[in-house]
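Title: Prediction job returns without error message
Component: structure pipeline
Severity: low
Priority: P3
Assignee: unassigned

Description:
Job completed but the reporter wants confirmation the result is attached to the right record. Sequence as submitted:
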Amino acid sequence: MNVIDYLVKSLRDAAIYNPDVQVAPACILWPDGDRQWEPILPRLKLEIPELFTLGDYDPGDRTGPAIWLRCILARAIDDYPLPAETTPIFYLPGVKRQDLRAVETCPDLLKPLAELQYRGVFWSQLNAKDWTIFAFLKSDQGGLGLDVARDNDTKSALKLALYRFLDEELEPIQGKRLDQDYFNTLLTGGDPTRDLLLWLDQGDAFQNTRHPNEWQGFISLCQSKFDFDPENDGALHGAGKLAEHTGPWNVAWERFCEAPKRYPHLPNLLRQCHPPNDTLFWESSDGNFPGWPQWNDHQEQKLRQELMALGENTAPNARQALLELDAQHASRRHLVWVELGESPLALALGHLAILAIRTQTSLAAGGIDDLAQGYQTYGWEADNAVLEALAVVDKTPDIEAVTTAIRAVYLPWAEESARYLQKTVAEGSYPRGTILDQKFPTYEAGECVLFVDGLRFDVAKRLQTRLSEAFEVTTAIAWAALPSVTATGKAAVSPLQPDLCGEDDVSDFEPCLADTGQSLKGGYHFKKRLKERNWQRLERSNLGDGQGNAWYEFGDIDHEGHDRGWKLAKHIDTLLTEIQEQITLLIQVGWQKIRIVTDHGWLLLPGGLPKTELPSVLTETKWGRCAVIKPGATTDQRLFPWFWNPHQYFAFADGISCFRRGDDYVHGGLSLQECLCLELAVTRRLEQNANPSVEITDIVWKGLRCTIAVAGDIAGLSLDIRTHPGNSASSVVLSVKEFKANGTASVVVENEDLEGQSAYLILLDANNQVIAQYPVEIGKTNP
């Protein structure tokens, strides 16, 4: 029961009488000399249709003079038909009980009601005094019996908040001290801290949308809880207290930090305040001033200058400087200014520190296997840190600072690694070899190969982490076919690899069909041969049926890299989300295994890769990192055999250099970033595939109704029939049915035209996960 329920009951209970010694009261008189109850009268009239008010004639509001109330009592007004058993209640604002008792001196406007004191009954306290609001709440003899503070501030707050107090449940407030703060909090919506922040954020607009009572309650709460007067102290003074967030203001600061974007104007208000310590103090102080955006701005400016200075340092010194800077600024990554996008350099510095740590260890020692192992273990994290650092900066000065830091520590590390790998391969052999060295892959039924162009090792690791939340993911290391360009690499990871070769004098690195000599360029013959080998070629609009094998090209990271350059870093997560969604759909459609392959990785360096000169007169074809040398021409660049034709050679750019100037995204050469790839194999989790201990014992078709029986644990088990086992949208039954206690379930196929077609009986667990499937012909009972 809430307060208004009790109040209504108390009013109506005033008419209770003993029929053995009394007659029923004609009415209930409710005198209220101080008009305390008048503000809540509209609400009470909604709850009490028999409640009428003494006042100027306004029948729509059930208000009228004394003579009109007598007519209501006599049931003489048709607009207000009162049942005989209902006792009307007459509210008398401005009238005290004794006003009616003194009949001789009773005002003329009350005289028609004077005699009702004898035929009716008063709603009053046991001591015959009129009920005041405070008395009704406080008294345990007919009132609520609540613990209400007696001070004048509490009584004032109670009057203002009464209309909201009516809806309070009684049980939680019984035994609770109800004081000024309680009623003011109730008046302002129950969250003074939120309201304080909203006022600081919205200014006059906050006050303009509040009832005057609410505004006064808000002021009182601020005075008592925050020692602050919004009207007299002003918003700037309040913003300064928030920035310092000492004492009770710390609660407000923590609330702001929880959801700062709810208060979009507050940071600018804080900036208008004069901090207690100027920048000269901040310059010489080791302390933190997290509440002041000016201090955070100053720290960002200092960090920007220090990052720019790294361009003058050696790589070891730059790494050490980054780690020292990170120790100074790491705490700022936990401040509210990060979420508001005002600490991009502090955020980038966390990734630059990882870059500094990872590039301390060289990848320029040992053999090929040692290089691969080092890159798998820690090297890829350096590449990932570059992308992460670039992803969080937007303004040109910040981009320049992060770029300077990256080039100071990453460029020499990647350069040294690439040169060492090239030297090692030139002196020995490349792990992937050529087409003559290949062992062609085998594929399981129900396996879909998803080709993602340009899925570099570090990006593949990110994808692995995402997919592992829902699926089983296994990995395998793969070296890209040389040169590391799509024309060569895509075909080398396709199921058509055994059918392909490379002709002599090919300048576009594109293989052809060995039996016909037809080039794969343009994709027509690639698609045609896939079909001839009974491979489905999937599209976004057609993800197949989970049967046989399929090839699906999705997620063109390489295209985005060539278009966006280093800004690819800002779009990686979006691209991975799209790929993740497609993989989930493929699993749902029914593909048992998704093998994710790629053609190559890439190099990315903001500010551009170093350029190496290779005159065009020496080349048939010159791409970013590889070129075909003209017959008879000589060059200082190392030559390597083409994957598809070991008699055809091409040149690589040295180290991580590029044959073009200004490219910050490129591939086609020989480096760990371009050539060492990570393949992923995605399947359902074991628990997703695990079948319960059930066995199908009988399948019977009667027309298009299928009844099956199972033995074993049938708890939560249900039956469906689908054309594609992993796709619930391919269900052909009127409705999925749960198994009965006797282990049977029966479903009806909706479309008669499906009779004789292949489909699958699907057993679903309580979570609607497929746990078993059985091939059937619709309408046909197996012998």
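Comment from assignee: result matches the submitted record. The mean pLDDT is 90.
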